Automatic annotation (TrEMBL):
Residues 6-252 form the ABC transporter domain. Belongs to the ABC transporter superfamily. CDD domains: ABC_NikE_OppD_transporters. It comes from the Bacteria. The lineage of its organism: Bacteria, Bacillati, Actinomycetota, Actinomycetes, Propionibacteriales. This is ABC transporter ATP-binding protein.
Length: 271
């Protein structure tokens, strides 16, 4: 059996209400496990708590209660600088908009080199070798290393963001709406790329999306969140064809797209 790389138990995050309003439980009793090499999706409508789960996993937000274990170590307390670096090597994040996360003034090659150097003390030649290997792995050419983010297309920029995340050789990649801003055909290319990467290295994905059709192309398992809670979980294919919850059904019907005919959603819409 594959090793569990993420174990989340009874996770809760409360935010203070705005101007004296009641506390908001953005995440409420969420639990899941993620094995090495597995792709798990978290889906839910806007505001259901998906990003807050991801931010807690990344250490960007502190849980109110519950436990997060990554690579066998519990993530609690305030980490030292060395510990923070080690955690970054375990989990990396790719956002929806790479333009915001990439430095506009830094060439692509240099951005990837910086990410490698942050984690590994490698010499000049090794740094070059790893950088071109990463560019090649995400389907970019050596000449792209010399370009700035604005000189690339949206899909190419997302490839750079993925290469930069892979530079740390993480065990887990969290993809937060990572293909949501791309055209459908480019989305498909990036999803194929993520599949290829998963075949070539030991990596697990936590794929956050509001779009069950997209999730179905990459993730074998899905958890469905609503108002901070997990309302349904299981094999993605099963959730798509036989959802137990009306809420999941509505999520399926909410994303019509050309060429995608959910097996039974038309029948279910009237149910
Ligand atoms: N820093 C914060 N302070 C107060 N409330 C917050 C904060 N971050 C998130 N929330 C609230 O927590 C809830 C869940 O938000 P979250 O961003 O996790 O949802 P989401 O499912 O990722 O939504 P989206 O798909 O729109 O990004 C929302 O009600 C949101 O307003």
């Amino acid at each position: 059996m594959s090793e569990q790389v993420v174990r989340v138990e009874n996770l809760r995050k409360e935010f203070p209400g705005h101007r004296g309003a009641a506390t908001v439980a953005a995440v409420d009793g969420v639990g899941f496990e993620l094995a090495s090499g597995e792709a798990l999706a978290i889906v839910g409508e806007s505001g259901s708590g998906k990003t807050t789960v991801a931010r807690m996993l990344m250490g960007l937000e502190r849980p109110t209660s519950g436990t997060i274990e990554v690579c066998g170590r519990e993530r609690s307390g305030r980490p030292s600088t060395a510990e923070r670096r080690r955690r970054a090597r375990e989990v990396q994040l790719v956002f929806q908009d790479p333009f915001l996360s990439l430095d506009r003034a830094q060439r692509i090659g240099s951005a990837i080199e910086t990410a490698i150097r942050l984690q590994f003390p490698v010499g000049r030649d090794e740094l070059r070798r790893r950088t071109s290997e990463l560019l090649e792995q995400v389907g970019l050419l050596p000449r792209h290393a010399e370009l700035f983010p604005r000189q690339l297309s949206g899909g190419q920029r997302q490839r750079v963001a993925i290469a930069r995340a892979l530079a740390a050789e993480p065990s887990v990649l969290v993809l937060d709406e990572a293909v949501a801003a791309l055209d459908v055909s480019i989305q498909a290319q990036i999803l194929n790329l993520l599949s290829d990467i998963r075949e070539s290295r030991e990596i697990a994905y936590l794929f956050i999306s509001h779009d069950l059709a997209v999730v179905n192309q990459l993730c074998e398992r899905t958890i469905v969140m609503r108002r901070g809670k997990v309302v349904e979980a299981g094999a993605t294919r099963h959730l798509l064809t036989a959802p137990a919850e009306d809420y999941t059904r509505r999520l399926i019907d909410a994303v019509p797209r050309p060429g995608w005919v959910p097996t039974r959603s038309r029948d279910l819409a009237g149910a």
